[in-house]
What does this fold into?
Amino acid sequence: MPEGDRGYRVGVDIGGTFTDIVVLDEKSGDLSLYKTPSTPRDFWFGVEAGIRKVSDSMDRVSMIVHGTTVGLNAFLMRRGEKAGLITTRGFRDIYDIGRHNRESMYDLRYRKPEPLVPREHRLEVTERLDARGNVVTPLDEDEVRACVRKFKAEGVRSIAVCLIHSYANAAHEDRIGEILAEEYPEATVSLSHDVAREWREYERTSTVAINAYIRPIVDRYLSNMETQLERQGYMHRLFICQSSGGVSSVEVTKLSPVSTLMSGPAGGAVGTAQVSGLEKIPRAIGFDMGGTSTDVCVSIDGNVLIRTEYKIERHPLLVPMVDVQSIGAGGGSIAWVDSVGALNVGPQSAGAEPGPVCYDKGGTEVTTTDANLVLGRLNPDYFLGGEMAVRPDLSAKRLDEKVAGPLKLDRTAAAAGILRVVNTKMAYAVRAVTVERGLSPREFALVAFGGAGPMHACDVAAELEIPTVLVPVAPGQFSALGMLYSDIRHDFAWTFLTKTREVDRATLDERFDSLAKRAGEVLEQEDVPREKRRFVRSADMRYVGQEWSVNVPFGEEAGDTDWQANLESRFHELHKRNYGHSAPEEPTEIVNLRLTAVGLVVNPRLRELARGGAGPEAQALKGTRKVYFPSLGWNERTPIYERERLLAGNKLAGPAVVEEPGSTTVVPPGWTATVSAYGNMLIRKNG
Amino acid sequence: MGRVDPVTLEVIRNGLVAASDEMRSNLMRTAYNPIIYEVLDFSVGLFDRDCRMVAQAAGLPIFLGNLGIAVGQVVKDVGLADMRPGDVYLINDPYLTGNHVNDVTAISPIFCGPEVVGFTAARAHWLDLGGKDPGGSTDSTDVFQEGIRLRSVRLFREDRLDRSVYRILHDNVRYPESHMGDLRAQVAACRTGENRVVELASRLGRDVVVEGMAELIAQGETLARQAIGRIPDGVYSADTYLDNDGVGKDPVRIRVTVTVDKDRMLFDLGGSSPAVQGPINCGFPATICGCRIAFKCLTSPHQPANEGHFAPLEVVAPEGSLFNATYPASTFLYMMSLNMLIEAVLKALSPALPDRIPAGHYGEMGGFMIFGVNPGTGRPYIHQEPEGGGWGAGAGFDGENVMIFLADGDTHNCPAEIIENRFPLRVERYALREGSGGAGRYRGGLGHYRDYRILGHDAQTTCIMDRSVFRPWGVFRGHDGEHSVVVINEALPGARRLMKATGHRLKAGDVVSVRTGGGGGYGDPLERDPEAVRLDVKRDYVTIEEARRVYGVVVDPGLLTVDPVATAELRDQLKKG
It folds into this structure.
């Protein structure tokens, strides 16, 4: 558990192409950023090289936080372990039947998500509980042993168990776990109530099956990493990013790797909340525009919105994640003219290979990046800080051929048109994310990061009438930076269906206490001191008869005789915000109890910038170039600034471009950027 | 190229789609009635000033493409000259606008300055309109038993609610609080759409938006014509039957003749049954909707549609027939016929498009319910949901197991764990129904078993199963799938098999097994890859005996391996015999 002032804190975010490493000196607040090619076979070399740049010795590193996509990739590539499933008799096909819906309604060849465990490895045992958890039929233990024999014969070594109503009573699942441990100690076992103690058998089965599917792979990867770190002299605990935006120790992660699947966007979301808090912005939309997609999240009063379930490639997961919506538009999105002469951008992407035309790696499809380059918004000599050569001439040629020609537009109009279409799409998508949650985008600031975010942010904000854009420090490595601000976090849920007015407080407290006890044990294991522990209770509630529920903070007031009324009034209020109406006279019910256990990590502070004048420093200006802006046309002498050389208080009036190795910020005419004390750029619409 | 530049046109396209999506999320968020936000029984859309749909966000496919007819009817009834900004009109007439009286549509004109530039509409399913039974009847024989009809009734005049109309509605439906709440949500959705279009027009110019709408429709039409061009010209027809209309006992004939002529299509429903006594009749607008679903599956399944996408389709149905039922025919269960109609169109075109059209699916409307009085609470309950079933196999793929029927879409089943928390029932099995998929080179998907035990009380069940006469069909020598059936207390004395039943009595401890049909097979089973048959055996989809008898594949019962020599011999023999 880091104290927060002694050494280096390191964030390592391994992406498909690049590994981002952020090293923060806890004492000085100095930040060092590294980007190295990902070395999938022995990624440690990249990490080590980064850390070596700031410290000769690993013993000065106080905390390493790691975001990994190993589990996600095993799932996406379907390269997981051969997994088996044990269910209640009569229910092995739940995993195939699913919720029987068809998302693509007119598709005669629609396929449901294919189960990760084929039918021959889905076995049933005789046992049954009722909805209250009472035993209707006892567990037939001999049948469990028969399952073991079958799994052994089939070479199945990772086993998921999901029994009907196990959220209400875990005894049968636990007993199966014991028998499997005795009879088949070399297998790993995932019990559904350990991974997600929530009702709805298909969703819970899917969650525990994915866990079993990726667990051996994640386990091997993390064990290997720990060994290497130890060999290098790292003496502390390794923390792993979770989809919820929190971090957990390696030990905990190994048991439930399913909770890391969507940790990719979590770092950026936590960073959005942190940086908007630092700059005193109460409501922020995170806008992370990368190569193939743009991730959008919402932060209110320093808290990222979390959802308690989601789907990945249509496979449901009952684990919390930061509420991120992914839009299929990014720097690599392909512009194309269809058979009726309409201009489309995306959803196909040129990705990193072959990438945009300008990469000269065989790409022939014009992308958003090519349009930015042709319009002078991107600097051909400064890709990745000048480490990558690009060919604007190739972009121009393909643009003429594929877009301008067919649409009978000139090259500039075609390129500007591509950007307008992609910005319109993104603006509507951001709008949908807010209005679907009962929020209005105008009340938010846009926090822009990712390689392409700061280049498009002002145009997208203008579409949405958002007056403020914030470009944080290190927008190109913002996910890795955000990880350093993550608290240790564990989420526990327990389905407990009861009418709010028919349950007594002691019963609920008993359940919350039992969750807290379990949570405390985990924090203890992670050496979180008692004074740093926080337990946050909440309840999923709804009107009796409704399907969807709303997560409501649970009052901690001891001896509150009006707790039911208070809880209900908080529910009505949230229901009104989310759905536009509430029905205070209607009875309510509780569906799930939730407990979030937090181990507070001392937030490191970034070093403040030296203060400069209001006008930008002369040394920051690195030149001018011709850049196209829709409202001005070609602007011959657009000033180009080097971000690193800007000082606090500097104001840059648009049109202007700010460059740094990982990203480019475009300040359009009518907008002014101000550099804050912490080096973040706040870009505001004039007037 | 049109008069609006291609970039602005994309801005308009995205703007209209986003506006209809926002109407959708607005309606879903603010609706009271779970059938709207859970079963998605609603539809919203934007229309140009000629009542042509320019963007639509549908909950269910069944609402695709007949909202515009409702808008047109209102304009015809009221007259543009008499419309004012802020007006809202209601219409639910099944013969003029589809689909049954429960589908209530709110329609508003969109004004930019003094001129109407378009319309916005929000349709939602109301559980009750004051018919003879709460929620609707499976045996109604005229519209008066189904509820009140509204035709272009003005609810708001220049943003002012007409209280007389409101009181008529309020006092003539069974759940007024919920329906008046939904009505407010529908009006709010219309307002949202209106505001977004006005905003777009103020940014881009009114004429640009009006012109843009027309161009988007023209583009849709071109796309659809290009897609029809990929279907071989010809006249194709198919016949099929429903077991009965729910009231009488006779099979009900459905016939469709499809003409593909270069870049246009005609669906002629002449030769189908006359309108029937039971509630499975379709008003002509409902029929158009069903035809458009089939047409969309064939032409542009993945694109958002506008009116232009349907311009090359013509639909003909004789007046007074099942598919052009007239006042006062009952229509509550129109979906039974419509589902079969959609499949009949696909069946007709199957020989022309062997690579694209799969075999028949279980095709049930999935009507099944259990109701009674919960002994724990003393309160009445009803458990009701559509059941999924097996889908047809196609060129290169086996049919999908247990999925919701064609005319329905993103509808979810209810988990056993939720059913058992709510109702005095125990789900004893929810599993694939082995052997239900039709055999074929590609095998039909499997239906399901869902077995309910009635706990501690007597209850009743109502079910509407069909297709025992014309089972889910196989194509190109593929076999038919099994049809759906409800079995009560199998293997016990007094066991019953039900197809259609209303309020069939059940005793405590009875087990009701809902067994849904499988999909049809595609191609000759003797040509199925033996490895696929082996896997089917390993997965218990087919037995070793069936593998041998139907597929001609000899699988070793112990090792579960294929004997290639014996298989080749057996297949030769079977082909000859």
Notes: The first strand of chain A starts at residue 8 and ends at 14. The first helix of chain A runs from residue 44 to 52. Chain A touches chain B through 67 residues (CB under 8 Å). Chain A has a mean pLDDT of 92.
